[in-house]
Amino acid sequence: MYNPSIYEPILDYQQRDVIIRFMGYSNYNDYLQSDLWRHIRRRVFGYKGNLCWLCRRKADHVHHHRYTIQNLRGRRFRDLYPICVVCHEIVEFDEGTKRPLIESSELFTWILNNKKLLRELREGRSPNVDISNNITRDYMNPYK
């Protein structure tokens, strides 16, 4: 059985879903409809503002950059970011197909650290993103 520490990044959606069920929710969508998630969203927007961290447009979503037990429970907001619908789609999906969790997390970090991509997003252009040769997995290990 999967048993992470409270700060350990959860590396795939199956692990996230185990934690969600342990918290008493039947699935992730049930969690997103909960009072807990509404409270977490309000606090993230209150702490980090209501502009997308990537393009600076109005944020509609809160993006889990990394899932941990602490941020799923609303006890830590470090890896939660306001994000707009357009940027959320870019980060979470590749031509309509949901990206693996690690890839989505890496892409978010890569865009956030890439001034050219940020400028394109902020100018309203949708960048053609090829992440295959541009991202490393090193940042996923918090102990490095």
What does this protein structure show overall?
The chain is mostly helical and 144 residues long. It has one domain (13-140). Helix content is 42%, strand content 8%. The protein is built from 7 helices and 4 strands; from the N terminus they run αααβαβαββαα. Strands 1-2 form a two-stranded antiparallel ribbon. Strand 3 and strand 4 form a beta hairpin. Mean pLDDT is 82; it is low at 133-144.
Shape: globular
Helix percentage: 40-55%
Low-pLDDT windows of residues: 133-144
- Strand % is 5-15%
Question: In whole angstroms, how far apart are the ends?
Answer: 26 Å
**Physical arrangement of strands within the biggest beta sheet:** 1-2
- The sequence of SSEs as H and E is HHHEHEHEEHH
- What structural class do you assign from the helix and strand content? mainly alpha
Average pLDDT figure: 82
Largest sheet: 2 strands, antiparallel
Number of strands: 4
Could you say how many structural domains there are in total? 1
Rg over alpha carbons: 15 Å
